[in-house]
Amino acid sequence: MKGYKNMIKILFICHGNICRSPMAEFVFRDMVQKQGMADLFSIASAATSREEIGNPVHYGTVQKLKEVGISTSGKYAVQMKKQDYHTYDYIIGMEYPNIRNILRIIGDDPEHKVHKLLDFSDNPRDIADPWYTGNFDRTYKDVVEGCEGLLRYILEHDRLS
């Protein structure tokens, strides 16, 4: 990680930090590792709520990522803090209610760092919470679509070296 002044710092956010945001964190991390760019990124995830803090990743997310060879080992839910706004370049929510809650935590977004993940795709929309839908396959497809779009956007718009 050292040697790069312009490391891109990304924080993925969902309600509890046990389903969608850790899925996005580990999918994006896997994408950049496979492209040999892992040292150019700092990637994390957090919750807007407190209810799951300290809990491991939901078994549905663990299982889905295991199917595609991605581990979530060592990840436990943490809550987003106001100072995260100054730490991260991109703060990425999964759905509109996440964005509303992120803004409640940080106060304002003068640097336009806050986005929905699928706003980087060709079909902007919310990513449904598999905690309620039970459909981790659909969530995974949406997360991959959003992460691919986010990576494309970063490669086109950010200086990485």
From TrEMBL:
Top-tier EC class? hydrolase
Under the heading CDD domains, the entry gives:
LMWPTP
Is the keyword 4Fe-4S assigned to this protein? no
Q: Where is the active site?
A: 14 (nucleophile), 20, 129 (proton donor)
Q: Which reaction does it catalyse?
A: O-phospho-L-tyrosyl-[protein] + H2O = L-tyrosyl-[protein] + phosphate
Q: Which GO terms describe its molecular function?
A: protein tyrosine phosphatase activity
- The protein's Enzyme Commission number: 3.1.3.48
- Keyword check for Hydrolase, yes or no: yes
Q: Which InterPro entries match?
A: LMW_PTPase (IPR050438), Ptyr_pPase (IPR023485), Ptyr_pPase_sf (IPR036196), Tyr_phospatase_low_mol_wt (IPR017867)
| Pfam families in the record | LMWPc (PF01451)
Where do the Phosphotyrosine protein phosphatase I domain residues begin and end? Answer: 8-153
What UniProt keywords are attached to this protein's entry?
Hydrolase, Protein phosphatase
As for family, the record states: Belongs to the low molecular weight phosphotyrosine protein phosphatase family.
List, alphabetically, the PANTHER family matched. Answer: LOW MOLECULAR WEIGHT PHOSPHOTYROSINE PROTEIN PHOSPHATASE (PTHR11717:SF7), LOW MOLECULAR WEIGHT PROTEIN TYROSINE PHOSPHATASE (PTHR11717)
- Put simply, this protein is called protein-tyrosine-phosphatase
